[in-house]
């Protein structure tokens, strides 16, 4: 498959009108190169809008939004391909007050220079390193306590532009006493900066000279905060079961899609095929799912806008999913798969994107994928029938059971409206 442009992937680099029923999310991405000029990594950055030149918010909320957007909206494989991603972490994540809901692998955790170093931070960073995470020290300087983390660091980022060369050499010398550390020259703004960094033996290079941060944007659905809270409550309730958890998720199309994305995240190390929301819940497990939902809720605080959701359009997505589920039962098809097929086809229609683009980075089972993209196979016929009934033009094969179909449609409409009015 040929590489696609950001626009073809559903990502945009310019602001455009956003219709009701969806909102636009953003993430900054700055390249990091090796000594030969090859791209080896990206640093992911918080951005509030497509024209933002810097972060307008900091702290745990901004970090949460970067993580949620990267993993459960864009997808790391779409943001960075095979390359590493550097993500800035605040104290809350370093000491375990907020969870990291992904495994070590393609992500480098950056300790921000603004984080005061104390024993709790030292212990937290060591624990993350023991779990296999690569640690980077951002904007490293001597004397602020961050040198205590050099023994567990894999990368140290040193600013070059505007820094006295002798002071920079001193910092490089201090870092070179640790064999496992790779040095990243950041804030490279001139050819002279780059030449000095090469002279001092830096392995990696980052800065405006080599590539400015680019803001990528994506149109997506906004989950209900009430559903988030309800789900977190159920996940912390020892008496809750997977069926109840799955029911809460399936009542919110946006939350459903995020959970599917989280289960399929390349960084989570999960490569199993998924047929339904229930599969995603089982694969993630309650603890990791709780971690994801907590960060989703936190990230939505900083990403909130006042546009709200178009209830009619959201109700239509839920109605199709429910109708597909009801129709599948009379045909002896798995109802959880049918619900997922109807849900994702409805989301694709709502966002106005090709279904194959929406599910490209979801490891769905073949029968589910074919049903969504081609409306093929038994599950696909259920979507075809549901879509036709919505438009008022029934296929010949459905005419004989039109009474049952009408009853199922009314039940689906009633169910979806009840869900929407309860949010």
Automatic annotation (TrEMBL):
PROSITE patterns, per database record: EAL, HDOD
Domain EAL stretches: 1-227
Domain HDOD: start-end pairs: 221-419
Protein name: HDOD domain-containing protein
Source organism of this protein record: Planomonospora alba
Lineage start: Bacteria, Bacillati, Actinomycetota, Actinomycetes, Streptosporangiales
């Amino acid at each position: 498959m040929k590489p696609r442009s950001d626009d073809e992937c559903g990502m945009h680099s310019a602001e455009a009108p956003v219709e009701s029923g969806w909102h636009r999310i953003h993430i900054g991405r700055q390249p990091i190169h090796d000594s030969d000029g090859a791209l080896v990594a990206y640093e992911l950055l918080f951005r509030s809008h497509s024209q933002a030149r810097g972060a307008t918010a900091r702290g745990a909320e901004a970090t949460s939004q970067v993580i949620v957007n990267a993993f459960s909206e864009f997808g790391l494989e779409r943001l960075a391909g095979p390359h590493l991603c550097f993500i800035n972490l605040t104290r809350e994540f370093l000491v375990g007050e907020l969870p990291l809901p992904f495994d070590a692998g393609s992500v480098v955790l950056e300790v921000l220079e603004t984080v005061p170093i104390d024993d709790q931070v030292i212990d937290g960073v060591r624990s993350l390193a023991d779990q296999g995470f690569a640690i980077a020290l951002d904007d490293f300087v001597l004397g602020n306590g961050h040198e205590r983390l050099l023994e567990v660091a894999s990368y140290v980022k040193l600013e070059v532009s505007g820094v006295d060369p002798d002071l920079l050499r001193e910092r490089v010398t201090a870092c070179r006493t640790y064999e496992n550390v790779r040095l990243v020259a950041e804030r490279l703004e001139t050819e002279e900066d780059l030449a000095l960094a090469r002279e001092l033996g830096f392995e990696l290079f980052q800065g405006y000279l080599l590539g400015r941060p680019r803001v990528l944007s994506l149109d997506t659905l906004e989950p209900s905060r009430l559903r988030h809270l309800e789900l977190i409550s159920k996940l912390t309730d020892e008496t809750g079961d997977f069926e109840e958890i799955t029911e809460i998720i399936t009542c919110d199309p946006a939350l459903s899609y995020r959970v599917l994305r989280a289960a399929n995240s390349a960084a989570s190390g999960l490569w199993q095929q998924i047929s339904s929301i229930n599969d995603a819940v089982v694969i993630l497990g309650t603890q990791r799912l709780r971690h994801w939902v907590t960060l989703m809720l936190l990230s939505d605080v900083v990403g909130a806008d006042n546009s709200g959701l178009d209830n009619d359009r959201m109700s239509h997505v839920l109605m199709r999913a429910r109708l597909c589920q009801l129709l599948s039962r009379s045909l002896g098809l798995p109802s959880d798969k049918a619900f997922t097929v109807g849900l994702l086809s409805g989301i694709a229609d709502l966002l106005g994107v090709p279904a194959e683009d929406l599910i490209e980075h979801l490891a769905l089972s073949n029968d589910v994928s074919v049903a969504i993209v081609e409306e093929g196979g038994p599950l696909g016929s259920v979507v075809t029938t549901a879509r036709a009934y919505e438009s008022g033009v029934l296929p010949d094969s459905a005419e004989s059971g039109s009474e049952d179909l009408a009853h199922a449609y009314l039940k689906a409409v009633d169910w979806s409206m009840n869900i929407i009015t309860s949010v």
